[in-house]
Amino acid sequence: MPNLLTIRHSVSRKTRWALAILAWATVIALWFALTYFKLLPPFSVPSPLGVMSAFVRLWNEYDLLGNVMQSWWRIAQAFFWSALVAIPLGLLMGSFRWLHDLVNPVASPMRSMPITAFLPAFIALFGMEESMKIAFLWFGMFFYLLAVVVEEVNKVDDSLLETAWTLGAQRRHILWLLFRASFPAIFSSFQILYDIGWTYVILAEMVNARKGVGYMVEAARKVLDFERVYAGIIAIGIAAFLFRFLLKSLERWLFPWRQAARPTSEPAAAVATGAPTKVHA
């Protein structure tokens, strides 16, 4: 117990799992209590058992897996085009200050603007078919990824570049070096980028969609089937978590050196300062 009150003290894997289970058990218990004692209107907050039943119906009757895969495919396409443009542009912006000063005054405000305000504009530009949804998702991802790429390129140590120049590297070699040094951190940001995609795809699929998790939730809302609405929300959370887990696993496989090498029981301060730690017999 005292270790739990130690600042920045790492916990074991077993403890992390126990805390995660405790957190979700608390949420579900509160949900049961709210619906059992009718503390909230049953119409707006259905019972957990009703939502579980609706989840089974989504799987058997409403092609839950097909809808999730359709949403994922839309996010994947937008993600691909975002990365294809943002990574080279961000690399150049981090390398050439004049290009950064040219692009950033436009890109920076875009990250602060609510993307929902642009939905009518995208409908006017692309109609209400598939291209609008991909373009809308691309817009939501691109400016975030661009900022991350520029930041990570700027973090590359100048001594690394000076060493490369000393060894006779040319400009194209320096750009490649900047990319290789910054890409592991950029890849880590892909997890958040996918979370952003799952957030925006729901909004995009509420407009003239015939398939996807957003369409599935909106169709349930129109007939006031809130058990199915909540089941759809849970399905979105599970799908987003699974894809995030896959990205995390891929990151660990591609860049194993980014994982902490110290044991979870060893204090971080001791590792950072080189201070000896106590060894218990």
Architecture overview:
The structure is a single chain. 74% of the residues lie in helices and 0% in strands. The chain has 281 residues and is an all-alpha fold. The protein has two domains: 31 residues; 211 residues, MetI-like fold. The longest helix has 34 residues. The C terminus is likely disordered.
Features:
about 280 residues; MetI-like fold; 2 domains; disordered C terminus
Mean model confidence by pLDDT: 83
Q: What portion of the residues fall into strands of 2 or more residues? A: under 5%
| CATH topology title of the largest domain | MetI-like fold
- The number of distinct β-strands equals 0
Order of helical and strand elements: HHHHHHHHHHH
Number of helices: 11
In total, how many domains does the architecture comprise?
A: 2
What can be said about the biggest beta sheet?
A: none
- Percent range for helical residues? over 70%
| Cα end-to-end separation | 21 Å
- Per CATH, the class of the largest domain reads Mainly Alpha
Gross morphology: globular
Structural class: mainly alpha
The fourth-level CATH homologous superfamily of the largest domain is MetI-like
CATH architecture of the largest domain: Orthogonal Bundle
Low-confidence stretches at least 5 residues in length (pLDDT < 50)? 261-281
Radius of gyration, rounded?
24 Å
